[in-house]
Specification:
By secondary structure, the chain is mainly alpha-helical. It has two helices and two strands, in the order H-H-E-E. It has helices spanning 20-53, 59-84; strands at 86-88, 95-97. A hairpin with a 6-residue loop joins strand 1 and strand 2.
Length: 98
Amino acid sequence: MTLRGAADSSGLGDLEPGTNQRGQLRSRISDIAWTALCTVLALWAVWSAVGVARGVTAWAYCAVAWVLLAVALALRVVAIRRRTGIRPSYRTGKYSQR
């Protein structure tokens, strides 16, 4: 007898092929990765902007950090729209579900 009891009788664990958890695993991992990337870039951008404000001559690092953050956030928005099926209508300019 297992700790899970009757739930193990089917033979399928949480991440076996064909389960809901397995189907959601890729999107969950990508969400975590995108969140970590955007957090690191945001911290870097703010830190370099504070350094520039204090008089440290790191304008190039500050500009690169903000550009990379903007690109990462734009790609994140595109990925979310592609996954959820939200697309702008070119005739009306409104967003609708697929």
